[in-house]
Design a protein that fits this description.
With 171 residues, this protein is mainly beta. The chain has one domain: Jelly Rolls. The chain has two helices and twelve strands.
């Protein structure tokens, strides 16, 4: 097992998570409408607040549920089921045949793969390591403080739910 990515014992109802994520990222024709959607932000009615690259900014500033999601499954079931305090939760879609820049994050991340293929991978640079996170419903702890990128060598989209941690512990 890698020291950079670890499957936690926490498992989410993947079918329900995908259903709820689809409501936020797809239109009626099943077309992706956004590559990132902020589930947690600073409290604004803005689906983009806290998305994208934010080096040097404190993840903890994005700790409020998007106002449109108050009273929904996200507030009543999803977040209470997590044993961690999480920040900057967002849905990220990576189109097929794409790659992110090589970077380091300030905090480790929790990932839940909603849709993926065997061609979607994390690549860590030093020492080199390639990791695949399956869409198995488990929350995966990923130490993104190490230099890495994500690639999607498939023709299909890869969709993950990401959550930031303020601490550095796996548990």
């Amino acid at each position: 097992m890698s020291y950079r990515a670890e499957r936690t014992p926490v498992k989410i109802d993947l079918e329900r998570l995908v259903e709820e994520a689809l409501k936020l990222t797809w239109d009626e024709e099943n077309q992706i409408t956004r590559s990132q959607v902020a589930i947690q932000n600073g409290g604004a009615d803005d689906w983009d607040e806290g998305t994208g690259s934010r080096p040097g900014q404190a993840e903890t500033q994005w700790d409020k549920l998007h106002p449109s999601l108050v009273g929904t499954w996200w507030e009543t079931d999803f977040f209470p089921s997590l044993p961690w305090k999480v920040y900057r939760t967002r849905i990220m879609t990576m189109e097929g045949r794409k790659c992110y820049s090589i970077h380091k994050d300030d905090n480790p991340r929790l990932h839940i793969a909603l849709k993926t293929t065997n061609q979607a991978r994390f690549i860590f640079t030093k020492p080199p390591e390639i990791i695949h996170i399956p869409a198995d419903g488990h929350v995966w702890w990923v130490d993104t403080r190490n230099e890495h990128t994500a690639i999607n060598g498939s023709l299909e989209s890869r969709i993950h739910l990401l959550m930031s941690l303020a601490n550095t512990d796996v548990d």
